[in-house]
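A student in our group prepared the protein record below, which I am reviewing. What it holds is a sequence and that sequence's fold in token form. My question to you is simply how this chain folds and whether the tokens agree. Do not assume that whoever made the record got everything right. I have pasted the whole thing underneath without changing anything:
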Amino acid sequence: MLLFVFPDIPLPVALFSLSGTNGTVDRSPNGAIKAVSHNIKFALGPYGNQNGSFYFNGNSSDIKLFKSGQLDTRFSIGVFAWVLVDNSSGPIYTHELPKKYYGFSLQVSHSALGVKVRYVDRRTLSSYLLFKKNVLQANSWNFIGTTYDYHTGVASIFVNNNTVMLNYIKAKMQLATYSKVRIGAMKKQKVYFRGRISCLQVYDQALSVDQIIKLKTRCNQTGKCVVLRKNERRTK
């Protein structure tokens, strides 16, 4: 099994290949996040690899990541994934808070060919929305993501090889990321994503553009999962 470790990039706190039979196994160094999928099918991945992605049907498919300290990236955060939108808007990665509230979320809009991110203050539940239109390639794979830096208060949207939005929202804000995560759905609102998702990665840091570009290959092109071991050390 191949091992992709980049010396100048932090290791993820969560890494799911979302491909093949082991696609819901957490391949991050701790590897402790439990996941359960519902009504998922395998599909071609972003490099044309067989079973290289999960297909979400838009009405009943989702993956639940159980509540975990690893997923509670309450200070800085980076979330990235490959997505192919199938004539549908919807959620990619959402923290579901108690009652009817939602925390941090990453979504795509088919009609606007856009990416929408909502950051939520952990203490007040105030939300800060970033929405960038006309940045997705229709009927194609797109590598999307977002970052937030606790110290600077700057949040970004990243699509393919570029930062398409960079906004100051609030410095030293602790994020509402303390709950379970739903991939491909916001079940309380009965909103579902239709399309394919592959190689979901979560970081507890705001990464640079150069670092993010390298993440595109952290899940390899053969459909096998990338294993990152606890005793790996970065070298200069």
